[in-house]
């Protein structure tokens, strides 16, 4: 693949023909897709914000055409790629060329390297020109969309068909070559691998690469090292939400032939579901203990044959176990070093020994300095200021009445007119609609979330498990 290299600067004005997809090319706006309509508006400086349906996009395009604003073209690329291309194109047209005769390009045999120092600008516009002249057109329509036609070339690039990309140049052309699979159409320039290499060249121009190795780690290029020779990547996340774990017994692999009838079921796992739902059957357990007692009365499980009461359980590091079992004393929180002669739990205890409410100390507040108040306050401002002032007794009274926080109505009423630190950043960024914003802060909508409901529901369970965990750590240490 070769392209001409020139460098100079000429004043110019960009037109819609300089940007692929910026012109309707005789088509009606309704014939374009949503992405093509958005790109058309973007070339006119309209980001299309708020336009969600195709009808809204078509209406906006027709408004531009009726008012004549469709001729005001701007560069849609943030890096001014089309502007730089137009500049290079005009500068190259000022240089004298051959007398209309097409020069035959001789591919060089030496001088290949990974350097891109003399590479000219290469964009999708050059690819559009190549597609038009080489016969790689889309369907039989006079006007077609280049992004749709290059879909297969983009697929070739993403599937890592290219590797070992090299470049060289002479006084007139800049050359690219890469290794890929053998393709007979590629000998005349119609192969999609050539278009894939062109897409890669566009990325070199876009990122101002100095070498073909600058983007060698991208997913669209075949890596130089096999995956078995690289370090582990288990810590890297894959497709994120696109990857969903499934049981291997439910996975079935088929070929992607959607139009044809399937004659084979595909590849699937021959494993059967060996996992069963373990259900504790007390009758079968009692029957097993009875048979064991008949075989060997001195066996440990045989001694527990008559013990079928659920209350005879003891707490261990791995949950509750039956009294007398191996786990009841081997994994107990505190191993017993004496023989118990009485059940302490049967001793009656007096309930409510210490039912007195705990009194917290008062806040050590001191009003040594009076607040400086301006003299030019109105009566309404003074009234608001007097309402905000409270004494020490009032502060301690509010603290005592709002200890339950979210479960107390008094706590919600006191927070109604107070802007907490968690709302500071939200208030700082607010620029308009302050009245509605103030009403939202004072009277917020009730917050509902399945995660919050789940946390509130299982908070006692989490506290109990945390207590068990800390108790086990204390005993183990």
Automatic annotation (TrEMBL):
<feature type="region of interest" description="Disordered">
    <location>
        <begin position="69"/>
        <end position="112"/>
    </location>
</feature>
<protein>
    <recommendedName>
        <fullName>SWIM-type domain-containing protein</fullName>
    </recommendedName>
</protein>
<feature type="compositionally biased region" description="Low complexity">
    <location>
        <begin position="90"/>
        <end position="102"/>
    </location>
</feature>
<dbReference type="GO" id="GO:0006281">
    <property type="term" value="P:DNA repair"/>
</dbReference>
<dbReference type="InterPro" id="IPR011604">
    <property type="entry name" value="PDDEXK-like_dom_sf"/>
</dbReference>
<dbReference type="InterPro" id="IPR011335">
    <property type="entry name" value="Restrct_endonuc-II-like"/>
</dbReference>
